[in-house]
Amino acid sequence: MLNYYHILGVPIGSSTEIIKRAYREQIKFFHPDVFQGNPEVAYQKTLILNEAYTVLSNPDKRNVYDAQLLDAIRRSNKSDSGTQKKEGGDHVNTNQEYQESPPESQSQSSNSKNTEQQKNGSSSSSHLKKQPYIFTAVLILFCFIAYFAYNQGYAAAKKQFEKTDEINSLESENKWLKTRINLLNNQLTETQSSLDGAELRLSFWDNHAVIVTEYGTKYHKFYCYHLENMDYFYIYNTELAESLGYTACKDCHPSTLTITKR
After folding, report:
1. What is the pTM of this model?
2. Is the dihedral of CA 195, 197, 202, 203 positive or negative?
């Protein structure tokens, strides 16, 4: 039975937040889009990580799984205990067979057996004393290699993630700028159209409209300084003003030829 807690690297009974954080850290490293190693390893690892997280993040599924896991651990412990008892029973039966031998041969056999057991015991004891140190050294080396590989992969994945995030940010900013440029171009077009209309109207007023004061004898353009502080005035076209006897102001119409009355 798969131990989902070992797969995620968290102890049994961990909170949902710890499980979620452990899952995110590992999925960032083993995700097929960022994993630097064999794609098949990334695919299989992602599948089992998703399976473990799906079960442990759901309270109902987790309760059922915990009960099954504890039952499997109990059965495994009972199986190991039964194996040890069986080995002990075989050893007793062997001694009993030796006890059924004749006294002299039993004594000789017992002495040789004791000598052999002492040799084997000292050899086994020496081997057992060395075995934990070898296992510890191998475990430390494995942990160091795994940690180094994890850091390298995590750094590469983080760099790739930051690069992707920066590209997405730049693309989003570029899209916003394009939208802004299009809006400004539309506003510029509208403003230009409005200016063209205003220029046309201003040209009409400048070429065809003149202003006369109440008691004056000249007609002026609307920007002539003679009209300053004037509150009351008339607006005519040039032909009508001249037909009424008004003449052009030389300051604002320096080159205007008056139309002769018929």
Report:
1. 0.33
2. positive
